[in-house]
Protein: tRNA-Thr(GGU) m(6)t(6)A37 methyltransferase TsaA
Organism: Paenibacillus aquistagni
Amino acid sequence: MYTLNVRPIGSVKASEAGMQIVLKEEYIPALQELHGFSHLNIIWWFSEVSDEEGRHNLEVKQPYKWSPAIMGVFATRSPFRPNPIALTSVQVNVIDTENGVIHIPYIDAHDGTPILDIKPYTPSLDRVESPKTPEWCRHWPKSLEQSADFDWQDEFQF
């Protein structure tokens, strides 16, 4: 049996000035040589739904308007899952390596959300040329860039 010890490395800061990933001071050296990557994979904790009850949800009722009536949680991006961990690819605007701040246009996390890890987005490992998706979500955008103009509010049931 493994003992897991997950420590946040920073948090999301959302304000009228924009969105940022702000690292704790001891993790700032880990930003070395991250410049040059246009996108990052951010691993974060669904802190607003991090309760024991939510971790037992294995099925959800039609979270998307066009999806099946019942779905396994692993077929969704629901925050209610055995481990409320999220992964979001973000575009980098500026990396302030001196202060440990990554300025980004958007992340689907709230102000104060704990950040668990950061990995560079690399097409050789993260990009899939021809992914397949179920019929109910094939009309979704084909890229992060196209998602910015997509009406996501019309997709969700909540």
Q: What stands out?
A: The mean pLDDT is 92.
